[in-house]
Design goal:
By secondary structure, the chain is of the alpha+beta class. The protein is 60% helix and 12% strand. A 6-stranded mixed β-sheet has the order 1-4-3-2-6-5. Keywords: Membrane, Transmembrane, Transmembrane helix.
Length: 347
């Protein structure tokens, strides 16, 4: 009897120890991600319902888990009611605090990321209705941060409306605009338009007359086409096209003939000779300049020598003219007259 009691106590003690070990192991398994890592707390504020979002829900950046939600609450409870009371929109915000593992997002500056457009929003995993926080970059001018009258206890990351909230808001705005539309007047205008269209199509309406005139025009055009000699016109066009093609082929053969090739070669040779002659022109021009300088020098010397000679010739010509004049007047005097007086130096 004593042995059976001791064995029972041993079994119960073993069961308790195993259960405690399993419980401790389960707790360690659940909290294994928190050991050896430094979690950084952040908070955000949303204007919509957080139904489906629970504490412990993951925080994902483009699908990658980077943290978990740690606290859900109301800003009016956590930070107190501001001076505006219930009318102040800041008192109706929902507070969401979450912890991020810096190792999962690269220890980058969250403040700089917020200025670049980092925002968080609620997202749903599917038809189950379970929600999580999704972080992503958007246009910071389109979604500016919410201005709050208190100092956040943790670094603040602005939020943007979820996709479902945006769709719901768009649907509400559409329904609001539709409610302002006078549907009875719209239906009345549509009915009047249909009646006017029916009266235009049938009877003596302008549209009916236009359709009849268009039908008559199409009939006349069809008759003109059927009565025209289209076959002969097409044949003439084909003949003209063939002639143009033959002329083009003849021109191509002429261009490819030996006469044109020879003329092209002659033109090329003439161009080469002309290029050579043009290349020689500077030397020829320089030679001409030297020759002109020599001729100019020779002319200057000849003018210097010819000046006295021309004066002597002019004096001789004057003497001959006087002699001829004297012979013409009195030839006998020139032959039988007195000799000229001697020079003064001989007297």
């Amino acid at each position: 009897m004593a042995r059976s009691g001791r064995s029972l106590y041993l079994r119960v003690g073993t069961l308790v120890v195993v259960g405690a070990a399993l419980g401790i192991g389960f707790i360690l398994f659940l909290t294994s991600g928190g050991f050896g890592s430094r979690q950084v707390m952040f908070e955000t504020y949303v204007r919509e319902s957080v139904a489906g979002l629970e504490v412990g829900a993951p925080v994902r950046f483009r699908g990658v888990a980077v943290g978990r939600v740690t606290e859900l609450g109301l800003t009016s409870v956590v930070y107190g009611v501001s001076g505006g009371g219930v009318d102040d929109a800041a008192n109706r915000l929902v507070l969401i605090r979450f912890a991020l593992d810096p190792r999962r997002y690269g220890n980058s500056s969250v403040e700089n990321a917020v200025r670049a457009g980092l925002r968080v929003r609620m997202a749903s995993t599917g038809v189950t209705g379970v929600s999580y926080l999704e972080a992503d970059f958007v246009d910071p001018e389109r979604f500016p941060p919410i201005v709050v009258p208190w100092t956040p206890a943790y670094p603040y990351i602005p939020s943007i409306p979820s996709t479902i909230s945006q769709v719901t808001s768009a649907a509400e705005r559409l329904m609001s605009r539709l409610s302002d539309v006078d549907l009875e007047a719209l239906f009345g205008s549509a009915t009047d338009l249909i009646q006017d269209l029916r009266s235009q199509v049938s009877g003596q309406g302008d549209l009916a007359l236009t359709l009849r005139e268009a039908a008559a025009t199409m009939t006349a055009l069809r008759e003109a086409i059927e009565g025209a000699e289209l076959a002969a016109t097409v044949r003439d066009v084909r003949v003209a096209v063939n002639r143009v093609g033959g002329a083009g082929q003849a021109a191509e053969e002429l261009l490819q003939g030996p006469a044109v090739a020879g003329a092209v070669n002659n033109i090329s040779q003439a161009a080469a000779d002309l290029r050579t002659s043009i290349a020689r022109l500077p030397a020829v021009i320089q030679s001409l300049e030297l020759a002109l300088r020599s001729v100019r020098g020779t002319t200057s010397d000849a003018q210097a020598d010819l000046g006295p000679l021309l004066r002597d010739l002019r004096a001789t010509a004057a003497s001959l003219r006087d002699t001829a004049e004297a012979l013409r007047r009195s030839p006998s005097q020139s032959l039988f007259g007195q000799p000229p007086p001697p020079p003064r130096d001989r007297r």
